[in-house]
Write a structure and sequence with these properties.
alpha+beta; Alpha-Beta Plaits; 2 domains; five-stranded antiparallel sheet
Amino acid sequence: MKRTEKAELVTAMSEVFSSAQVGLLVDYRGLNVGDITDLRRRLHDSNARMKVLKNRIAKIAVKDTPFAELEREFTEPRALIYGEDPVSSAKVVSDYLKDNDKLKYISGMLVTGAEGSALDANRLKALGNLPSREELLVKLLFLMNAVPTSFVRTLNEVPAKFVRLLAQVAEKKQAQG
């Protein structure tokens, strides 16, 4: 590979490391081309990407980025799964692991602001088990809707109770007279 090609790869990888909000480092050994294609398709559907890393280039590109702590992990064949939404990326990998146990979590980074916080394999699994953003929004809307609904039912019960009382009094008077 020529020096200019290497420089272009370093620049491209540096942009990935600088802009991604989450990065999951995985060991992909044992996966065939069909498996990797399937994983990439699933990741693409959730706005995430997978990049097989060249360790030397990744070590150079990761410097001065929030992912700098991952440099020590660039020793064996690795792939970086990155994206904007941490939960959806981890959820796709978690779902994929149910079907194919050859893929393994190594470590990861979660970026907030300009700071990155390291995630070990257990934390990555926990991140993958979190509900998605859409599920959380539905739960929030349900909870927000529950309070006014309950309040309206309570307010409605007072006149309804009064109407039932009047109906009972009317029935009683008709029965007497």
